[in-house]
Amino acid sequence: MKSPFQPIQDTFNANLDSVYKLMEFDEIVQDFAIQALEKADAFLSQQGVADNHPSYSVLKELDQIRKIRTNESLKPHYQSMFNQCVVMLTSYFASAVESIFTTAISLKLESNPSPELTSTELKLKVRDLQSMLSDKSVSIAELIANQKDVSFQDTKSIQRAFSEYLGCSIQKKECVNNIILALACRHALVHAGGVVNNKTISQVADATPRQVKRQLSKDQTLTFTSDEVKLIAESMREYISTLISTVSDSLKPQTANSEKSKNAK
Description:
The chain is mainly alpha-helical. It has 2 domains: 7-73; 76-254, no CATH class. The protein has helices at residues 6-23, 25-47, 49-52, 59-71, 79-110, 115-118, 126-132, 136-147, 155-166, 174-191, 198-203, 226-264. It is elongated.
């Protein structure tokens, strides 16, 4: 049976792959140009054009593009794109975690909800009630996420929400520290012109050990490399995979107990 969390993981992995492809876009274009020029050179040589008319040769241009490709000469021009890739990753991460949370709440409500979950107080408007008529569990999950100040761009808030409503303990590992760094830098990139401020430093103070930007200083301009972006992406991939596994395990006993209860009746 396919896991209800599999589509979330598949979508997240596809989003990570799209970021990787974006970072490699210059290389893709260069490879295409090199292949086109190589074909042109082969054709010109076969026809004897290059020998009889040297001005028609494409070898000089081909050599230049090969050097650009080998030396990664265009990479510095993509610096702002690498920074924006970090912003994209944090958005994809927050969306995936939120989807896991609401899906898990829905499953728990359908099986054997805990007293902590069923005693949660929510303010319900008429439009909320209308939306709940079609899918009660998902709507309740969304209300909890929206009304209980759950921030899916804050690992502490994520840990608190999953612990309180789902009984899941999220272990803090090095990958989590890399994510904390990315989330803190996202705020600086979007709201502070990419400059590290006191808030950034405060947010990453306990995020050690980490693999990305181990040292940050106030007024430092953030510049991410493609390798750093990939480290962050893989940290998020590990986190999402572990979170799904942890949540799935926490739901299994409750589902089993629910079935036993039904059979007893």
